[in-house]
């Protein structure tokens, strides 16, 4: 059965139910109206009869409690008159001569004793017939002295209409059957045409090129079928276009490195790309349940979105997030074409750019600072040396030699600085990528590094101890490992007391090669450990400059460790020495 047939059957059944309810309601209303009309007639008759008897005569009967009374109501008449004393005792009844029960509990009697007229309908106990009662109070100087009640036999409404119920019901059944079959006939005649149109609209493109209806149908349905075919084709075409556009948009959003939020004017999210979900740890299934503030916990983003909506202008701002690792973002907040339709937020991470910019500024400042002192010294002592030579004074040989030594020392400092900068630039630019690692014996690399710094160690009478298994090997960039060891050993010698010890150790731990250089020198305070591997960072600038350091040695060590996919770390306490360690994967 089609939806159309079901609807028509439902409509027919509803009409039948409505008709039944209407008939029942009408019967109830007519029954009530029948009772009201009879009650109104009884009321008029009671008042007329009371007037005919006379108010004074009725009052006299009640005051004297008369029993033998002759009144114009006979036993065989339609109306029954009853006189009731204030105590509820029946003084006189036109139809019943035997003693009657006390009537004080009758509704109409109780109301009449209070001075109000009242009616009632019930079965009479004495006559066993359905009657309508109407009670009037009898007064003596505004005092109720009794009740004048008139009643009449009233047949039930059902009994009154019983003679026409069967014909009426028969006619109603015939009409209902006729309506039902008429509905069925109409639904059958329209079912095929409507069903075909429903099939086209439900199946869509698969029926668009099918044949038109072959069976006889109304011209209106032929036109309607053609219109639906055209509409369905257009909808199908637009749906495919929308799906393609949605797929392209999703691919673009999924491939973006930027975090994207789209929301309505109430800042309720309706689109969030994977980068944004990852950045703010948003559950993909509950996107529409979040507002912007609930998803990002950022009042800055919420304020920017509200401002963009209120002003209908695009805003740009910088945002810093500190969820574990500090990240910087450039944020673009753009309202959609309609001010009330929503807003789009794009967050582009610029942490690396900010860091590189800071490093560039620090680099320029540090290089300028490091070169300023040796250049000034070379310039100053050169001028003094020239003045001394021009003056032709004798016995100035020692002073000239002193000046030349200072010039030579600062020239060496500048040379070391430029060499370290070149090494660092080589590491950062990935120049080693053109080379290949070699399987090298670690002890040979350590010995070469120790040989390079041994003259410096002998000057301070520092003993260098080496601990390395003879057969320990690894794939390494040999020259860079030697450079890293030289930097670490040279620092250990510089910052150790004379006649102390420095040790170099190499060993394997799991799948890692560990290179350690330790000393019992000055050590590093805890607050400097995190930055010790930064370029130009010094714990004590004056002491580092005194020892001829460039501030780049440990940064070079860290980059050499990164070149080998490893890490550089330090263990140190102020005044207790330091242990620098390079961890390199063995494979």
Helices and strands, with pairings:
Layout: H1 3-53, H2 55-64, E1 79-84, E2 90-93, H3 107-113, E3 118-123, E4 130-140, E5 143-153, H4 157-203, H5 219-255, E6 259-263, E7 269-272, H6 274-280, H7 292-296, H8 299-311, E8 315-323, E9 325-335, E10 343-349, H9 351-391, H10 397-428, E11 438-441, H11 442-459, E12 463-467, E13 473-476, H12 478-494, E14 501-509, E15 512-519, H13 541-546, H14 553-563, E16 567-572, E17 578-585
Parallel strand pairs: 12-14
Antiparallel strand pairs: 1-2, 1-5, 3-4, 4-5, 6-7, 6-10, 8-9, 9-10, 11-13, 14-15, 15-17, 16-17
Notes on the protein architecture:
It is a single chain. This protein is 51% helix and 20% strand. The protein is α+β, with helices and mostly antiparallel strands and 587 residues long. The protein has 4 domains: 3-153, Beta-Lactamase; 256-342, Beta-Lactamase (2-Layer Sandwich); 355-425, Orthogonal Bundle (Helix Hairpins); 434-585, 2-Layer Sandwich (Heat Shock Protein 90), CATH 3.30.565. Strands 2-1-5-4-3 form a 5-stranded antiparallel beta sheet, sandwiched between helices. It starts with a helix and ends with a strand.
Short description:
With 587 residues, the protein is an alpha+beta fold. The chain has helices spanning 3-53, 55-64, 107-113, 157-203, 219-255, 274-280, 292-296, 299-311, 351-391, 397-428, 442-459, 478-494, 541-546, 553-563; strands at 79-84, 90-93, 118-123, 130-140, 143-153, 259-263, 269-272, 315-323, 325-335, 343-349, 438-441, 463-467, 473-476, 501-509, 512-519, 567-572, 578-585.
